[in-house]
From TrEMBL:
Listed transmembrane segments: none
Organism: Sander lucioperca
GO molecular function terms attached to this record: cysteine-type endopeptidase inhibitor activity
Start-end of Low complexity biased regions: 31-41
Entry similarity comment: Belongs to the cystatin family.
PANTHER family (alphabetical): CYSTATIN-F
Lineage: Eukaryota, Metazoa, Chordata, Craniata, Vertebrata
One GO location term (cellular component): late endosome
Positions of the UniProt region annotated as Disordered: 30-72
Pfam families noted in UniProt: Cystatin
Protein name: Cystatin F
Signal peptide location: 1-23
Record has Transport as a keyword: no
Record bears the keyword Disulfide bond: yes
UniProt GO BP: immune response; negative regulation of microglial cell activation; positive regulation of myelination
Length: 173
């Protein structure tokens, strides 16, 4: 079996397309080809065939698609903290806000790393004119000054170019 045929079969398996879409074979039936192997095996389909790929992928995700990331991921923490500083720079509030909860976080590898995050940001007791270090700021207690916003952020990091691009960033009550 040639390299092109093998690549095409791998692609078909990844896309879960049956070989029937190409007339039931690609480049003819050869000993050791998937069409002959699936018939000769006692168990039916061979590993990597479309029917097995769909079963093995049930618990995983497609390569290149977003996947859940731990809330403790260092890159995620940096993205959320940078977004909080951006929020504070754009806000007219007298107090600083800092991240209070990460609801959902995903990472996608696309010519760099794209973080997709749904999170909450809450008002702290620190005034903007004071220390800008958010780690020293406690959240406002429940009451008149307590305020929280829900945010959605998508940031694309391209480390080899030392670039960070904010694709989406919005917060609301």
């Amino acid at each position: 079996m040639g390299l092109k045929t093998l690549l095409l079969l791998s692609l078909l398996a990844a896309l879960e397309l049956p070989l029937a879409a190409f007339g039931g074979h690609v480049g003819g039936s050869m000993p050791g080809s998937p069409s002959n192997m699936s018939r000769s095996r006692a168990g039916g389909s061979m590993p990597g065939s479309p029917s097995n790929v769909s079963r093995s992928r049930a618990g995983g995700s497609m390569p290149g698609s977003p996947s859940n990331v731990s809330r403790n991921d260092r890159g995620l923490q940096q993205v959320v903290l940078a977004a909080a500083y951006s929020f504070n720079n754009q806000s007219n509030d007298a107090f600083l806000f800092k991240p209070s909860l990460i609801l959902r976080a995903q990472r996608q590898v696309v010519r760099g790393v794209k973080y997709i995050v749904d999170w909450k940001i809450s008002r702290t007791v620190c005034r903007k004119r004071e220390d800008g270090n958010l780690s020293n700021c406690d959240f406002q207690p429940a009451g008149r000054l307590h305020q929280t916003f829900a945010c959605h952020t998508e940031v694309w990091l391209i480390p080899w170019l030392n670039q960070t691009k904010t694709l989406q960033f919005h917060c609301g009550p």
